[in-house]
Each structure stands twice: as structure tokens, then as C-alpha cells.
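Hey, quick one: can you model this chain's 3D structure?
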Amino acid sequence: MAMEDEDINTAVVATNTQTGIKKGGDAGDYGACIDRQPDTVVHQAGLNQTAGRGSRIGAGAHAATGIRVLKRNIKRNGSRGCVTRKTRFGSRERDWLKGDTQRGCVCLYGGTVDPQPPATGPQASSTPQTDLQLVLCSTSTTVEELCAQRDGQGLYVQLHGDLVRRLDPSERPLQILYDYLAAMGYADPVRLQQEAANSDLSCLIRFYSEHPVNADQQERTFLKGVFSVRKGKTQLHKWAERQVFLCGTCLIVASVKDSLTGKMHILPLVGGKVEEVKRRQHCLMFSSAGSQAQTYFVNFDTLADYQRWHRQASKVVSQTVSMVDLSCYSLEAVPEYLFYSQDITHLNLRHNFMSLQGPGGLLNLPRFSQLKSLNLSHNRLGVFPECVCEILTLTELNLSCNNLHTVPAQIGNLQSLQTLLLDGNHLSSLPEELGGLFQLNSLGLSFNNFSHIPAVLERLSAVDKLAMAGNRVESLELCTLVRMNHLKIIDLRLNGLRWVKSENLEAVSQVTQLDIRDNCLDSLDLSSICNLETLHCQRNQLGTLTLSGFTLRMLHASSNCLTTVNIYPVPNQLTHMELSQNLLEYLPDWVCDCRKIEMLDVTHNLLSELPSRLLNSLSLRKLLAGNNRLHRVPDLLDHVPLEALDLQHNKLAELPESLFYKALNLKYLNVSANALESIPPSSQSEESLSTLQELYLTRNNLNENCGALLVGHQNLRVLHIAYNQLLSFPASKLSKLELLEELNLSGNNLKTIPSTVSSCKRLHTLIAHSNHITVFPEILNLPEIKLVDLSCNELTEIQLPDSLPATLQELDLTGNSSLMLEHKTLNLFSHITTLKLDQKSTTTAGDSLSASTPWNHGYSEMSGQRNKLCVSVLTVDRFGDGLEACYGIFDGDRNEEVPRLLQCTMGDVLCEELQDSSIDNVYMCNTFLTSHRKLGMAGQKLGASALLCYIHHEPSDPGGYLSLTVANVGTCQAVLCRDGRPVPLSKVYSLENCTNEMERVKLSKAIITEDNKVSGVTCCSRLLGCSYLSPWVLPKPWVHTEPLCSQDEFLILGNRALFERVSYQEAVCTVQAVRDPRAAAKKLCSLAQSYGCKDNIGAVVVSLHISEDSCTCEPPASTTEPRAPPPAPVPVSLTPGPSDAATFSSSSGIVSEFNSETSASEVGSEAGSTASDEHQSSGPASRPERRCSIHPATTLCGIIVPTAAGAGTHPALFQRQPSCATFSSNQSDNGLDSDDEAPLEGVISNGSKLEVEVDIHCCAFQLRSGAPESPKDLDLEKRGSDYPNGKMRRQNSVVVSATNGCLLAVCGREIADLKKSPSTSSLFGKKLSNGSVVAPEDSHNLIEVALEAPKKKSGYFTAPAQQDPEDQLIVPPSLEQEVREQLRGQSPLVSGPSAPSTTPSLKDPVWDHPHPPAFASNLVPGPGPAPILQQEVYDTAL
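Sure thing. Here's the predicted structure for all 1438 residues.
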């Protein structure tokens, strides 16, 4: 553990006081146990040599282990306000820990600490907290020994903020902690020791010195108090002080003195009444049910007591049965007063830690004389509690998930038992006595260890369902089912079943439902099961399937290798058949003869034609035939009842002419990804009877003529006609689609959207990206509009109404390079939840010298039909100190919190882990595990799939080839395009796709539901978060490193929803056809939506330009002045220093998103052109040699260092600008510089510039403190010194952050203040918008340095005045050395390994970029021969 020495005056020092310990003990063998007073030595004790379960120490271990208890007033929840390892331990403690990795620290929380940390997340709680004790011990230290040292009664452990369990005396806390971390995925013993001492771990595993008090739990289980009580409704009885209890189903009134031994009055409340007594304050009347009802009046002292008792009693009287639910209360025993509720019939003790002994233990449960239902599942019993066999009234008993290995013979005593659930145990046999339970009709044996069907089932004639999923039955003898003629439903899924044998021709007549999905069958003949109605056989390897069709109603056989299905006789009762993802080349003839077939799914097969009789069936309502090889669809001969038709991904050139007026019930039609050039008419006459509501025509060859054919579908609600060849859309036709709600016109050649779109009053979604639209459509007057996507067009201006509809939630205007927005427009947009704009930069001659990386990216996120976006992306084109990049995607399925947290923290964590290890598997695994821990409370119940891609040089060869390291958990995937072919880089961790993971989850006795979800929650076996599902769901990732080469064209990252609809090959072909990464990502998401996806979709496309030697160097450019454009504002330019952790990429512009729902410190107002009229280039300038990021131009701290050829001739320029969102009047027609218009509030005009204060965020990983220089850093520095005057100083490096379109230079003192900022330690940032508020490149770790900025005014901050040009600092060559000496004397900005500052050049991209790079680091030609470096320093927020 990296611990620094410190004074140990606060630490506890061991003395030689001994109690029963032999002398001469080593310091590693014996330690001191310090009492609760910090500096008081109590005693020193030897430890028991007996090792508990799972010991890592063998027989030769030390006879005793030191235990040291330190007391600190430590804040909990792992905030950075907590004490660090440096302040926790003194030098002696650190030396003792370093001596052996089997030693470590256990954090003990007091009993009054609430089990859940406060809801404010990692912020320190305002309420006083109980002291935290740090106990230094070893893995062999037992609970008994720890309690003896502390004079404690016991220890408790809590996992994931959930249940609290008392530890057995022989259990070893540190070993439990190490085993937990090892199960998560940590492998290095030293790292295990470090993680065990991390306070963040308390949200995953926490130890208590006393049982934590939970007032809410006590209230729901047991209420008591001394109150004034009166019996009866008459005035004959007087008020008296009585002890009152509310426990279970009864109200108990007893004497104050003799509450346990004296006379008790028990009032059953089920079915009774509890009413407020209005004549007295805080008084309730309790009445029992029945003709002889009794009544008690109870007068409470306070309103709180009154409300608490009223609330709990109301729940009891509302019950129809006498049921008590004590589940999930961490109970070890039943409350003693509960036994007075003798009317209890249903008792739920699920998810507790019930013990056998004690007054309220399981041995006392027979005292409930009327108990019928008992639930003891998930209680870690270990053995079957034989005492429950004495409760002869039981009709239902649940003992699932209790690690049971046998069932005792006494089970035969429960003659009234009807339901017995034994799922999730380790049973391999059943006693013969079980066969005597003739009333038993439901027996659960799923997820046990049975290798065959128990023979005792032959005698259980009332059992009609065999529930044996998740066992080890490899062979099923049908003759066995013949003997068990009472079984009608058979569930044998997830058994590894290999054979289903039928040795004789005897019919199995009683079985009606058979579930054998997720097994290993290669052929199946069930013709002897003559009355089979429903068959599930998905996800086997079936090549042939033979069934009896007499009574068959439903057949589910997807995901097999079927080439044909044999059913005899014709299944006239068949209504539902699913044969998707097989190898069918034709449909069997009997399919057309089915008289009642309603739904047929044959997607993802090899069909080349559909039978005409099938399409003309009078019963078929839903036909799914996408992803086949169909060339034509047969004509419809008569009216058919077809309602849904899916023919996407075929080879159709036309549709039947009579489709729409023969299928009048058709409501859904998807013919995307075909070769259609036209669509059939809606009717034969002018009057149309079409009921079509959803029409998907994406990716065909349709032109504008199809618009006239859509008019007849006046009930159309959803129209997707993207990626066709439309030049326009007829205005008169669009006006007739008045019920249209969603319209997607993306990827066409439209120049305008007709103004008649305003007639579509119900339109809520308009997606028209990737066109040539120049005029903003008239859609902002629509009353229900929610989402407008006009990105990647040619918009120049927006005409807005006076007010926008309150329903507008998202507006995407990125990729419109000529769009200029007035400030009035931006203010009008301020209420929109998500506003996406480009950060503009102007084009100058110096742009060719901007920072270059061999990659650029684009991304897209779409919420689909969900009301929130649960997908986040992470994109950093310049990551770390060298030529590196980091990309990620996070999918929370139905939660948005975890993806946002991962987006903000995971890049920071990766950067930290890279300092500790250069082994890909190590740093990637630790990044995921640490991010899992940092989720805190949010990760206890919520989780997310995560994928992280890291592009880097190999540590052994920093100047060599680039590599791509990919790590993922869950279902997010990465695909690399190499020579036009997809190369999958990730592993899908879902139970259906990964056999090994399925087996692991089964072995850990998880309950897998029929939809293949762990405990019915998630289909993923690996996630970040969802820690309450541990050890079934783990955070350890799959890690793979792929060397990159010049044949690698691009990388695609996507979530589950994307790749479920778009195959790898189609995704690669799609991106190849689009030259802009952002437009490519948009297209992928639009295609997935048109193919039927309703969920959130996320896609990241990274264009790669990898040369043969992983170098982007180019020959020196000509020194002659290139033909420059007319004078234009000079963009903000900045030479990236060695600590440039994130620089905006030049791929697709920088997307800024406005969130009006968050605080002012989160809202960036980046819009318009960031430019300046000053210091324009007018003369020739010599241009330095163009270089790549690994061979940079020589710079020093923002000052351009002359090369040998031009030494002493290139002065440099410093310019300080308080605002980095500047607007040029030459670029925007906002009229704010005219005399007849008042300036907007919050906008300051300064000459030709307009400034708007913007939000600033920066990344924590840019501020990392000093560390020993790694070989990689030394090598970089060495290579940097090969150039003239290339010496770099670490203390003069500048931290630069480009975020939300802003450039931030943090100098000297501010860095220390930044690190002390409370926001830097806050993991739970404010809720982000529907997309990334911060620019994707800088979304690793959100630090709100502008938290104390002025409040928002009209959507913006008040901007400071622009500084005068006289503030510029020009360093003459003669004074350059003196300036260097002065800079050397300044305090260091960032301590750490430095690398040469770079002014790389942008390699001519393979993909055209729609607009110039934003805020790239540029050399700006200035007057004379000297290149001028314009640097912006934004420090007003600091």
C-alpha cells in the first residue's frame, strides 16, 4: 500500500502489557487492542489457532495475529472528505500491513448508524455520525477473537446496504472481505489489501460492532408504549395507564408493572376497525370483528405516535386473512409477542437469518396453532428445519434457497401439505415418505442437483406439474412419463438435456405442455406425446423436429438449426408458431393447411418464396418474414384479415398491387431494407378504406412520386421513409396526413420540408437529419411537438414564433456549419431540456496546422419510444499525455443514473489505473471494478452494461504500433472494420449467449426465470452495479487487445438495441457508405428504429486513419504563403501542453447540449462563432514542419521555441481573454451592435465582439498529482529533447481543458483550490439531461468549478468585460532566455511526468469533415515572419 510516513500522535501505539501471552512474540504475531478511548491500552491477547472456514493460512501459521483498533471520527459513504489511508494509519501500522498481504483493515461501524447512507450520496451528512473503528487484523482473526479484544457481544455484516447478518464466532471478517473482493474480480493480493481499506467499499460490504437500529423496520414489526386506555364504548370503564403492544394481527393491552406475567387482553384486529375519536385529541378506537366484538380506546401522547399506530393498525384491519409479513427484516427470531396472535394463518419470514434456538427461534413455530402457510426461503438454514414438520396444519411450505442437501423423513407428517417449494437448493434425492402426501399438488424442485426424475413422484398423484428446471437431467425417458400419468406440465429447461428417448410405441397421453428450451438436443421426436398442446424448444441445436399435430396449439422453436418441421396430422388447432433464426429454405406444405394459424414468425431464415395459400389464409393476422431471401410477395386473391406484415431485409423490388385494398385490416407494414422503387396504391378508387397506422419504408429506392400514394392512408401515425431518393415531399399530400405523430425523412436529398407540415397537429417527432435542408421547417407551432432532429443539414437561419410549445424537449441542430443563431433565439430555446448545437470555429490558414490525431468520432443517442434516455457515451479523442484515445458506451436499460455516473467517472478511473499498471488485463479490470465501487448507493439496486475502448501505444514500444484494448460487461458491443469486414472485439455477457456464464450462475444457485433473467431482473451475468445480485452478477469485464493496422477503417460501439436490429456486416457497410462519423452514427440509430427497435439506442463511430508505422507525420510544408481566404476572425488557438488530457476532436464538431432543468452551473451557453477580429493574418509566415502527435513540434509552455533554421526570429504572443464564447458581428447577424436595439441582459458588447459567460467543467484526471516518472514518460521526454531547444519543464506545464466549447487554462494556485473543491469529490453529480451536458470528450469526471458562478439570467451568465489588446505579452527573442528563467522560478502547476508539447498537424482524413475542427490548437500566421500563438486563459470562474 502506498502510504507516506506521518506523525503518529493520533495513532494508537501498542505497549508490552500482556494478558496470557508468552513472551518473545514478534510484532507481526502480536499486536495491541486498543479500547474505545483512542490512547488507552487495554490489553494484548493471543489469538485462537483454530482456523475458520476458508482460511488462507495453513497449519504452519502464526499462533496468534495482532489486532489493533483505532478510533476516528470519520465521515462515512466514502466521500473524499473522509480520512485517507495516509491519515488513518501511523508508520507502525503501515509497516505492519506491508509485512504480509494476509493482514489488513476492517472498518467497524457503530450500531446506531443507519444501514443506508444518506440520500445525498457521497456528500457528508449533516447529522452527527457514530465513530468508525479501524481494526487491523489478519485473515485468520476470528469474530470471537475480535470481540474478546473489544469486549463486544458480536459482529454483523451487511451486503449492498441490504440485510444485516450476525457473524458466527468462528467466521473471520477480513477473510470474508478478501473473499468478497476476489469474487468481484480482484486478483493481486496487494490490491486486495488496498481495496479492503477503502471507505467507498461500505456501500458493498460493511461490518457493524452492534446490530444497526432501523426505526422504520421496528415500526413495521412491533409497536409498544404506555398510554391511557379505556375498555368498551360505554362510560362504565375509566381511563387507566396500560402497556399497549401492536404485534402481528393483535392489539395487546397489559399491566404496566406485569406486562409479561400479568393478565393480558388480546384484541384480534383482522377484519376489525380502527377509527379516529374526534372528541379526544390523538385518540384511536380499536375494534375486533365478529358479533362479539370488543373495543379499546387508546389516547396517545403525541401526534407522531398517533400517526404511527394509526398507519400500522390500518394495514392490519384491511387484511382479509390473518397474515404477518416479516420478510427482509434481518430477523434472527420472531418477536416474542407475535406468539400471542394465535389467529395467524400466513407467516412470511422470507429473506431473514432465522435461527433454530431462542425464544423466537424456529423451534417455537409449532406454537402457532392455526398456521397454514409458512415462507422460510432465503434464510441460509443449511439444514432442513425438522421442527416445521410438527406444524400439522401447514398447507404451504416454502424452503427455497436455503442450501439444503437432504429432506428428512419427517416430512411425511404434513398430511395437509398442498404446496412444497424446494427450489434453489442442493438436493439430489427425495425421501420415500414424501410419497405419502396425497394432497400435495405443487412441488418445486428447480435449480437443484437431480440427475433423474425422482421415482417418488409416481406416488404423488395430485402433482400435475414437474418443475425441474436448472437440474442435471441429461436424458429423458418418455416411458418414465407414462408411469407418472398425472403429470401434465413438464419443465426441464436448462438441464443440459441431450436425449429424449422413446423406446416403445406407448403413447404419452397426459402431457399437454413441455418446456425443454436451452438444452443440448440435436434432434427431437415427440410424436408419441399425442395430446401435446404447447412446446418450447428454443435455443437447442435441433436439426429435425417431429411432432404430433392432434392438439398442438403453440410451437416455439426459434434459434435452432431446423431445415424442416414434421407434424402429422395437420395441426388444425395451431394458432401460434415461431420458427425464427433457423435454416428453413421453404415452408412445409402443412403450414398452409392450418385453419387457425394467427401468428407465424419465420424471420432470419433462408426462405426464397412465400406460398400463395399462406398469404391468402383466412386466419393469419401476423406474418413476420424479415431477413430472408424473398424476391416477390404473392398477390392477394381475396380480402384477408392480415394486421401486421414484416418483410424487411429481403430482395423485394415491388409489392402486390392489391396489398392495401385486399388487406383492409393491415395496421403495421415494414418493408425496410429492400429494393422497392414504388409502393402500391391505397385503393382502386379515390375513396380509401385503409387502416394502416405504421409504415416503414426506410432504405429503399423510393422517389418523391411515392408521396402521392401515401395520401390514402389517412390513419397513418408513424411514417419512416428515411434513406431513399426523395428530392422533395409533395406539400399538398403531407397536409392530408393529419393524424401523423412520427415522421422520419432522414438521409434523402430534401432541400426543404413543406410548410404544410403544420397541418399535422398531432406530430410529436420529426427526424430529418442528413439532408440538404436550408430553411427551418414550420414545426414550432405544433402543439405536441417533442423532438426535432435537423442535424447534418445546411440550415442558415431559424424563423421562430413568439413562443415555443412547452412540450418541446429535444432539438438537435448539430452539423449545420452555416447556422448562425441570434441571442434572442438562444433565449427562446432556454427551456428546452436538450439543445444540441455545434461549437463553431472559423477557417484560417493556420487550421492546417491544428492538432492531429489518427482518428475522429461521431455519436448518436436516441430515446425511441421511451420517455427517458438511459444510454450515455464517452468520447475522448486526446486522452492522457500521448497519442491516446478513449471511447465508451453505457446502457442502463431502464435507469439513467448509473450510465451518467459511469460517463462522468470512468475515464478518470482509467487514467488513475494506468499509473499503477501497464498490463491491459490488469488496468482494464481494475478500472471496471473501481468504477463499480464508486457507484456507491446507486450501484446497489441499479446497474448498467458498459464498454470501454482505449487506443494506445504498447508500453514496451511507445513509438511503435497502436493497439486497441476493449473491455466490456453486459451487452454493449464493439466492432472493428478491417478491410471491409467486421471484427467483433467484445463478448456479450447474457445468459442466452454465453454458456459458461449460464453454468456459473446455475452453480451459484440463482433462480433464472423463463425469460432467462437472473431473479427476474436482468439477462446479463456481468454488469456494473446491481451489487445486490452478487455473486450471480459480477462486475469483472472481458478484456481483449487488438493491434491496429492500416487496414483498420473505423470502430463501431453500440448498445444491445442497436446490434439486435443491425447485424455486424450491415453496420460496417452502412458506415462505409457515409463519410462523416456523426452522420454514420445517426444513420445506424435511424436504421435500428426503422427495423422495429422501440428502446434507447446509442452508437459511436470512430474513424481510424492508421498509417503503416502508426505515425501521421507528413513532409515539411512549403514556406511560401498559401492563398489565404479573405480576412476572417482568428479562432482561439492554444498549444496543448503535456497535461492535455482532453482536446476536442476534429471529427464532427463539438456538440453542446443545453439543459434547462439543471442548475446554472451545469448549463453551457456555447453557441455562435467563437472568433475574434483582432490579430488577423495579413503577411507571409514561415510554417514549421508538420508533425504528428508522437513527433511534435517543439514548444515550451505555450511559447513557440524556434527551430535551428529560424532561431531567434519567432516571438510568441500571450493573450488573456476572460470569455471563451465570443461572437463576431462579421459572422452573426444579431444586430446587437446597432444603436437602435438595446443589448440583451447577460450579454456584453465589446467593440465587434459579443461575450457570453459559459459554464466550465474540467476533468479530474487532468489534475493528477506528481508520480515517479515512468519509462514511457522518460522516453517521451528523451525524444522531445532530440529537437533544438526542446527541453521541457514539468513545473511550467499548463493544464488545459476544453469543455462545452470552452478552453480553460488552470494556473498554479487554482489547481490546489480545485482539488479542495467539494464538487471534485462528488460522484453523484446533478442529474444530466437527455444526453451529455458536457462535451463527450470531457465527460470522464465532472468537476463543477463554476459552482459559485452568478445565477442564470435569461439563460446565460453575466459575462465580464473583454480585456484590452494591450494586455498581450510579446516576448522578443533577446529576452526569451530571461523569461524562461523567471518561469522556472514559479510554483509548479501540475507535478508529474511531462512530455513535449505538441503542435501536430491534421492528416488529410479519409472521411470528409462537414465543417472545420472546433477549438483546435493552431499556429496563427501573424504580421511578419513570426507565427503568433494565441492562448486563452479563462480564470474568472476560479
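One thing worth noting: The chain has a mean pLDDT of 75.
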